[in-house]
Amino acid sequence: MTETAPQKRLYIKTYGCQMNVYDSERMADVLRPLGYGVTDQPEGADLVVLNTCHIREKATEKVYSELGRIKRMKARKAEDGGEMVIAVAGCVAQAEGAEIMARQPAVDLVVGPQAYHQLPELIARAHRKSGERLAADFAADEKFDALPMERATNGYTAFLTVQEGCDKFCTFCVVPYTRGAEYSRPVEAIEAEARRLADHGVREVTLLGQNVNAFAGEGGLAGLVRRLARIPGLDRIRYTTSHPADMDEALIAAHGEVEQLMPYLHLPVQAGSDKVLKAMNRAHTADSYLRLVERIRAARPDIAMSGDFIVGFPGERDADFEATLALVREVAYASAFSFKYSRRPGTPAAAMTGQVAEEVKEERLARLQALLNDQQMAFNAAQAGRVLPVLFERDGRREGQVVGRSPYLQPVHMAGPASLKGQIVPVRIVAANRGSLSAEALTERMAEVV
């Protein structure tokens, strides 16, 4: 009788954006044929992967702090006669590969976001204690060609990368340096992956890209959305993150014409001052952004707008910040992400004069977030009494509770049976807070299921 080898344990910790979440899932797919099964605890793991983000300085320092903790686990496993391989992946790996290995010798290998398909060979080198253990190539096409066709799915929603890299070179951003130039996957490959996801029960996909609406396949992102909308069982489509300069009329029209395209759009503006936008190299003005929002809302009046904001960018004066607040008031966001500017080494903004004092950035961020929070609460409160279709995804914290998402991406909690998971059900919204909605069934038997 042949004994089955015990499964090796893989722990992946993901930092940052949705694209890193997708990359982590695909790393697990790459490693599954090698006998690795995912565990939710690093203690005792055979392979630990930290999939990193380089957008903000604190995120980078958190990685080094975590490496110190993992190093101690690695030492304990070695004392017990075992071996733990530590890998750093993602954008910090791309930007600081050699420095990581010098600063933390416990790291066995470093792999950039365009090279994680090389993980099996890198792991073999780590075990052999020979060969190059740093991979930071920019060949995105090679990566996608090398990934396994099958993906492990764990739920009814999934991320699907369609575009990587960015050519915009915003002066605060490291993405062009860590993810490389814009690359769009072939439409046929994306459709095939989406069909496989739908075959495995996925009902909603979020199309991902550093600059997703720069997707360069035939028909652009709008054409891709229309193509994916024809896949049976794929009932919801979202996409993120967009650049205003690449939001074309075809995509705007798709929001009004494609039922599967959800009425939620994350469209970062970053600031409301033209002076600051120019210094950021954003390629749009406050007015052009506002006019764009008008056209989008004309196509889809109920669309929920989301955005990104940076406060305290070098040279930002009080009047510039007030212009940002004015833009926020005019748009009325349903949700948003806002941050203090932090210097990223190697970016043009890091060397700019007029760096804003930390206490000023903190005060401005607090004011901006208070306004954004009020807007989010107002948007959620406006849903009370409405009937919304909700895709239920998982059990809630309370017994007999299920949780899903509205078309506007809000979490929705409701008392209901676990059999609702994976179904899109019209429910009545009965209460709202800033972070979620509460709902009730329209009928006791929940007979009306989409």
Describe, in plain words, how this protein is organized in 3D:
By secondary structure, the chain is α/β, with parallel strands linked by helices. It is built from 13 helices and 19 strands. The strands form 5 sheets. It has a 6-stranded parallel beta sheet with strand order 2-1-3-4-5-6, with helices on both faces. Helix 8 packs parallel to helix 9 (249-257) and helix 12 packs parallel to helix 13.
Sum this structure up briefly.
This protein has 450 residues and is an alpha/beta fold.
β-sheet strand percentage: 15-25%
Helix proportion = 25-40%
Tertiary shape: globular
Low-pLDDT stretches are none
The CATH top-level class label of the largest domain: Alpha Beta
End-to-end CA span: 50 Å
Compute the number of strand runs: 19
CATH fold annotation of the largest domain = Rossmann fold
Structural class: alpha/beta
Q: Which architecture of the largest domain would the CATH scheme give at its second level? A: 3-Layer(aba) Sandwich
The number of helices is 13
CATH superfamily of the largest domain: Methylthiotransferase, N-terminal domain
Task: Round the Cα radius of gyration to an integer and report it.
Answer: 23 Å
Task: Describe the structure using short key phrases.
alpha/beta; 4 domains; 450 residues; 6-stranded parallel β-sheet; 21% strand; 19 strands; Transcription Regulator spoIIAA; Rossmann fold; 13 helices
